[in-house]
């Protein structure tokens, strides 16, 4: 049984989702050479050093692609293999997502044959005309491939949607737009790796790896490559406020359905002056409903009071009081305006930075410091 909490969306609008009950192609044949795009660039053989298979063409600060589309553009170059693989799930995969970060990033996790860990961002459009578009957007596809150095032999390939967080996908109907997550009847996230989908097991000669990197460390490095804002240490929500109290610092908090980008002056200021955390709305809703810890309830409630879809950036005192916040949509509006058209000096541009988004976010952080530092306990 599935629970899809989209009460504002009609049954007709959900027809694309309801009719998607089986894989478009339960099996397919690929030649080993088709996996050549997963090989690293020439000379790029450092263990754990990420590279882009398909570079992202968007930044979270540069807008997004249109929702009002039914069919993906024809894939080209290295997009072809990923498009073919994802087409086994559904006939309309978009290898380039509407929102940043797009693309696919990989790193080498073992050396002998090649062993790669891959993270892919892609989404599916489930409807056909005359229905409105209906988007199914997994948080990411994660996988690995064991591939010979000349791409003549593939030992193993797996691709799945990880479910280690409380929100791992989003549904979006054109018209009403309500992010959600598919749960089973017990309220648990559905694991995309069904036991029945396990491949046949073949017996191979055991590979003797000269160097190896753990799955957890590889995933962390790939996430930093795809989400460079993670170069700052982001603590779990409640731990961030414990640290802020201990170090008498403000909390830089991001509440979101989905991430930030890489701006080195911002990262330096965050590392120096803030304790940082990022959370999903569902996680804070769970904290707010947890009667066993009133202090965590209060912290979550103060955040949710200030939250507006899709992302809210906040500066908080260690007790959870929000002293400054800005919504991502307003942020994008501000950074797209000419400096002379901005009335609120709090978000005026600085000549120090060429990038308006960097300047504006720096202003946001500095304004948070101006408001919050006098309120910290000595």
Automatic annotation (TrEMBL):
<protein>
    <submittedName>
        <fullName>SEPN1</fullName>
    </submittedName>
</protein>
<dbReference type="GO" id="GO:0048741">
    <property type="term" value="P:skeletal muscle fiber development"/>
</dbReference>
<dbReference type="GO" id="GO:0055074">
    <property type="term" value="P:calcium ion homeostasis"/>
</dbReference>
<dbReference type="GO" id="GO:0005789">
    <property type="term" value="C:endoplasmic reticulum membrane"/>
</dbReference>
